[in-house]
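Quick question, first post here. What does this chain look like in 3D?
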Amino acid sequence: MLGERVRIALETGHFEQDEARAMRGHFKPDDRLLDLGSGTGYIATIAGRIAGGEAVTGVEALPHMVEVAKTNLLRNNVHGASMLWGAAVPSAHQGEQVRFAARRQFWASSILQEGQARRSQHIDVPALRIDELLRRSRATVVSCDIEGGELDLFETDLPQDVRLIILEIHPKHYGDVGTGRVFNALSRNDMVYCARRSIGSTVVFRRIMAST
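> Answer (accepted):
Ran it through. Tokens below.
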């Protein structure tokens, strides 16, 4: 499932290292995490060790990776986490399913985009609207790595309880204009870029006036 590149990254401690550093640097014992694109459950495990498994809700579109994440959480003594099968979509999404491009390496999978038809297997997965996910998880922190699916995701009113977003942006999918849309949507929600633990494509946003 991993591929050689990711296997080596895991063995050497470099897998999702920027997201992991941001999580360890910002996540607090009284926080609650919504982890979008959970994959192996690595980021969810870090949060679970800090705040307990009951404070963690993960979302993963590949059904076999949902089971991998659940198993890894338990192997790391994180109990009570909720791991949901589906893809996070904007609140205005129409329909109960979304077409997902499932690739051999789980980390390269994403909601189907134009031009992917010949390069990936297609599966239909539950469409999980971001407003409902935030309500259900009662998240104070959101971690998001969904391979371009973040483009329209935050164009909704975020609950005031959400104080921090750790986001991997994907300019190669949507360019500077799309990156601007993501930043502007978060700005409209009183979220400001936070230089602490932001690095490269991993960016941290915190709510204005929120404690750090």
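The domain at 16-92+125-207 is CATH 3.40.50.150 (Rossmann fold).
The chain has one domain: 16-92+125-207.
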